[in-house]
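Run log, item B.
One chain of 525 residues. Sequence copied directly from the ordering sheet:
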Amino acid sequence: MELALGIIGVSSAVDLCFRYGDSLLRKIKEFRDADALISESITKVEYYWTKTIWQLRIINRVWQSLGEGHQDLSKQILHILVVKLNKAVLNIGQVEKPSSNAKQCKILSARRKGKYVLLVKECLDETLREIKAWQKMFDPSWYLMIRVSGSAIDEEFANANKNLPTLDDSKSNSLSTIRGLRHSPPEGSPEKKQIFLPRNGLAATRRHNIPLSTSQLLEMPDRNFLVIQPAECDDVNSDVSTLTKDVRILAGKLMGVDPASFSLLKCAGVVKPSAPKPGRAQSFDFIFYFPKEMRDPQSLRRVLLSSGEGHSLSARVRIAKHLASSICYVHALGFVHKNIRPETLLVFKDGKSSLGSLFLVGFTIFRMADGHSMRLGDPAPDKNLYRHPSRQGLQPEATYVMQHDIYSLGVCLLEIGLWKSFVLYNEEDGQLPQPTRVEPFITNGSSTKRTLVALARDELPKKMGDVYSRVVVNCLTCLDKDNADFGDESEFQDEDGVLVAVKYIEKVITSPRPSYIAYRLGFLR
């Protein structure tokens, strides 16, 4: 199967998906009258397959607008869907079906009927899990079309949104989400969302510090909670008009994100500051909604320092997935974050794992990916620990690029994998106190990087396995000239800035490669 798929084109892959998908639906519909539980599972499979059909049709139609790297990645992921659907068809075909399900089930003994229903339902639930898992794998490359220019894509999404059936699930809105994130409505149009909020609207709120976090909680009069995050210019001499424009663009895009998919909080708006004082940088307050059915946010730093060894490998890998996805989507939105560290990561309790769900915040010194970099920094060792050596100090030598965010991701993944905070604090008094020690002890940027890479190669495999460790090493060395995946900067000089994001998805999100076997055994499932 793998060899055969390697030589077919995208149209053939899409046709195979449709053929296997149609065959699967025909087979499972034969079971609909057997039992109410089976009927419910069939409806769920049909529900998710509807979204997949529309995505496949759009990918097929806009294929020529995608770059070669984007095409290669999408084709590999489509081939995985072919394998999954073929497997699902074979599995459902092996379930023993009475000649007439509805009539035969009525005369079966209660015990035999119970076993039969259970067997069919398990098969359907496994099919549903596989389709949903594929959707998670496909989403990063799908949403990367936010950055691809071309009227053909705009037209396709406009037509698809007119014809797409309404599905009662946040993830089913991916078509309208992608259209909204590609182009914001013109000023004055009814669809234009209000970005900037009146400052006096926060007068009745109470602020609560989130320990060891750059964020705060806002408690509204009706007891709703929001997250507040300041963003400011790199310097008092920065261009405030440029920052204001970037704030408006970023906030508008964050208003349209799906937190469950993006691992980014949904923005409620931005509060403009009062007139800045002389000698102080301009600052804005981003306001974010709580993610649905989640509570009690803590910074990842606080969690690392307070929870010891009490979390399973699965729980740690889960928040690692969330972090890797969030950075992917920040880049898909056209921004670099510049401030990825445990203080800018919030972990919410969600009742699904001992750790919960992780979200990237901390948009304090962001900028557009193609915007001008001021090359300003600071000497703080606890912040430089998460910066590539070329970006450390008061005057970093290199212009900030997306790979610098990938390096910061590598440091955070290393901490999550070892479950060890590299920064210790004097006390937790609700503010952000000065750290007492940075581990491993550092002398300069170059030696810090060597120490981190050595930890990832020597110590991390014992706790997280070889695949996770390779991902971390790849992130930490992504700017090395001898890095086979990221080292050649000339490979990423495309007009839309998509190639580096494609490489990131391929080497980090679906590492070690998006084949079916790697997907089953790899870092991010």
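Observations after the first pass:
- Residues 454 and 473 are 9 Å apart (CA to CA).
- The first helix runs from residue 2 to 5.
Flagged for discussion on Thursday.
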